[in-house]
């Protein structure tokens, strides 16, 4: 059947639009022209359709396809560059933490005040790290009560299509999942102490740990990097004959500071993009829930923390054993 505009019922609305254009041309006395439907600009209509329905939402995790494509910052090349920079920064931070202790133990200080300041900042770094780690451990382990919503959803997903097995087994499964979450939380937030001290907190994903990353960078920058750099500058300036340890410590400190500034810029940019895309509905940019965060990162980060602390101890022992004792000189 054909309606008043000459468009078949059930046909595509774009075919109807094409016939309307053709009919208007004939009524105006113009020559008959073949109207190509493909030449009609339908981008706006496609965008409206995708914004209003699910057809344009599947690929982008729930966000309208017409809004934004994934930013190039989350592409493979940029992601690999950030990971390499973070790993390099973590290795340099670990070496810095060990060299700072070796420097204070083996280097000759001309002024007692500089030595006292060096020791004070080394102690403050330990106290600040323990305080920050203990805050998160208390908040997310001791005082944390997991919501049973995630546990129930997980159970329903596992039991889909199966018969109910009884209230007793259901309660046992929930209790088991809850206990597993508690254990993973203990692993994760116990490891945070070591990660903050050795500098390997950089490996935390900015999407899921933005505040922990900010605290880690602040501790390293204000309790270790900047004050220790000034102490070394003043002490080296007063020293007539500089040792290899002094030169190495200064070079490592400057390189670490430059890398840290680059990491901070990229981290702030990445967090802002994640929040922007999360508001638009991109599923990959949304922060994981606490239970999911524990399951994803609990075991991995605990192994990283143990390995980084073991490496720190090994570097410090090698440095102490291979460097010569300092000459205190006359007082």
Question: What distinguishing features does this structure have?
Answer:
mainly alpha, 331 residues, 9 helices, disordered N terminus, globular
Secondary-structure blueprint:
Layout: H1 13-27, H2 43-52, H3 76-106, H4 112-142, H5 148-158, H6 167-198, H7 210-238, H8 244-280, H9 290-322
Radius of gyration: 31 Å
Give the topology string: H per helix, E per strand: HHHHHHHHH
Helix content: 55-70%
Biggest pleated sheet: none
* End-to-end distance: 109 Å
Query: What is the overall shape?
Result: globular
Structure, described:
The protein is an all-alpha fold and 331 residues long. Helices cover 69% and strands 0% of the residues. It has 9 helices and no strands. It is globular.
What does this entry show, briefly?
The protein has 331 residues and is mostly helical. The chain is 69% helix and 0% strand.
């Amino acid at each position: 059947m054909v309606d008043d505009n000459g468009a078949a019922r059930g046909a595509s609305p774009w075919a109807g639009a094409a016939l309307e254009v053709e009919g208007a041309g004939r009524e105006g006395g113009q020559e008959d022209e073949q109207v190509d439907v493909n030449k009609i600009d339908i981008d706006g209509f496609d965008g409206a359709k995708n914004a209003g329905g699910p057809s344009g939402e599947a690929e982008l995790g729930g966000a309208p396809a017409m809004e934004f494509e994934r930013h190039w910052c989350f592409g493979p090349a940029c992601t690999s560059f950030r990971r390499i920079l973070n790993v390099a920064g973590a290795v340099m931070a670990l070496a810095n933490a060990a060299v700072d202790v070796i420097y204070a133990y083996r280097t000759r200080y001309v002024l007692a005040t500089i030595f006292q300041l060096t020791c004070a900042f080394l102690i403050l770094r330990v106290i600040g790290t323990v305080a920050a780690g203990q805050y998160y451990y208390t908040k997310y382990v001791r005082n944390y009560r997991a919501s049973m919503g995630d546990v129930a959803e997980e159970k329903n997903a596992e039991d889909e299509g199966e018969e109910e097995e009884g209230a007793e087994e259901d309660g046992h499964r929930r209790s088991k999942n809850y206990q597993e979450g508690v254990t993973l939380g203990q692993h994760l937030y116990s490891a945070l102490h070591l990660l903050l001290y050795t500098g390997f907190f950089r490996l935390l994903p900015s999407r899921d740990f933005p505040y922990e990353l900010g605290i880690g960078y602040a501790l390293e920058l204000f309790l270790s990097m900047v004050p220790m750099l000034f102490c070394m500058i003043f002490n080296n300036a007063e020293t007539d004959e500089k040792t290899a340890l002094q030169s190495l410590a200064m070079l490592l400190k400057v390189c670490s500071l430059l890398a840290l500034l680059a990491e901070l810029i990229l981290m702030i940019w990445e967090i802002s993009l994640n929040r922007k895309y999360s508001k638009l509905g991109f599923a990959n940019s949304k922060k994981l829930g606490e239970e999911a965060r524990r399951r994803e990162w609990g075991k991995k980060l605990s192994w990283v923390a143990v390995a980084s602390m073991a490496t720190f101890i090994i570097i410090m022992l090698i440095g102490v054993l291979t460097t010569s004792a300092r000459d205190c000189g006359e007082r």
